[in-house]
Amino acid sequence: MDQWVGFANALRLRMYLRFIDANVDAAAYAEKVKALVQAGNFFAGDIKFDAFKDEVNFRNPWYTTSTSNTGNHCAACPLASYLKSTNDPRIAYGILQATGPKDYVGTIPGSHDVAKNKNADVSSIDISIAKTKPVYFFTQSELQFLIAEVYVRFLSNDGAAKSAYEAAIKADFAARGMAGQETGMYGAGGAIAWSNATTTDAKLELIYMQKWVALFYMDHMEAWSEIRRTDYPKQSSRKAEEIANNSLIYTPGELIVLWTNGLEAGGLIKRMFYPLSARQYNTNTPAAVPASTRIWWDVK
Fold first, then answer.
1. Quick check: bond before 89 cis, omega within 30?
2. What percent of the chain has pLDDT over 90?
3. Tell me: the pLDDT tens digits for 209-255?
4. How far apart are CA 45 and CA 139, in angstroms?
5. Please, what sign has the CA dihedral across residues 168, 171, 175, 177?
6. Are 205 and 234 in contact (CB under 8 A)?
7. Is the pLDDT of residue 159 over 80?
8. What would you measure as the largest C-alpha separation in the chain, in angstroms?
9. pTM of the predicted structure, to 2 decimals
10. Burial of residue 57, with CB atoms counted within 10 A of its CB: 0-12 exposed, 13-18 middle, 19 or more buried
11. Torsion sign (Cα): 179, 180, 184, 186
């Protein structure tokens, strides 16, 4: 029961931050997030469905449906470039080196790179990890990043924010079986050390960017939700074709608007469509809204 209560409190924390950023009774919810964090009644470990094994019919269903389509999964330039820029060893988790340049090479989203040989020219995603990978509902890493954000934004406690930030990174390394490799990252002089950020905005950027990294191959839907809430990673002002022709104009980690883009108003997708099955079987399904339209809590 303690774990269930801790899980519920973490969900509240996640939701309340979205209410605040959408200016929904922001002052009241700010008090609620402060109370939640100060009480510290959260879950231990990760909240996950962990029942898969490497046997037919018992593997993770994403792996089962992806094994015949490995060419559809390749590393994107924003993630690969950011991990390389910070010398992050987690780049080896889930991303395979391209065999041509023998390096981690991310593809420009929507570019002609998708027509190339994935293994030779760009890095493919290592789907073998997914055979027995749990489904994560809430990671300890995400929880600690949310706590760090609250300490920065609402409690003005830099020391506690730093501790939660480092605990978040440590938890993610541990969840990936890479425990101990994180200290060089956030220690003194490290590429993502807390001391590198000297302003509130810089500290939040560190939190948001590292949360984005930590959600890779752990909870992609939540990563997308946090991108829309926090606006990190930032969106590059450069077009995909420009970046492909001159990588020096690109800031590693920035999101790239697709080279070939079928979105109504361009840009990046902001919402999912209701599936056809919902429209067929539920007459109360809301009217279709363009995928470029922000959802209610994505107000920035």
1. no
2. 75
3. 999 999 999 999 999 999 999 999 999 999 999 998 999 999 999 99
4. 7
5. positive
6. no
7. yes
8. 58
9. 0.94
10. exposed
11. positive
Q: What is the spatial distance between Cα 229 and Cα 207, in angstroms, rounded to a whole number? A: 13
H or E stretch at 48: strand 47-49
Q: Can you tell me which residue has the tokens 């469905």? A: 49
The answer to whether the bond into 275 is cis (omega within 30° of 0) is: no
Q: What distance in Å separates the CA atoms of residue 216 and residue 93, rounded to the nearest whole number?
A: 9
Residue with tokens 């425990």: 179
Digit-coded pLDDT (tens) for 51-97: 999 999 999 998 988 766 556 788 999 999 999 999 999 999 999 99
For 261, the 3-state DSSP assignment is coil
pLDDT, residue 113, reads 55
Name the amino acid, one letter, at 160.
A
156 φψ region: left (φ > 0), alpha (ψ -120 to 50), beta (else): left
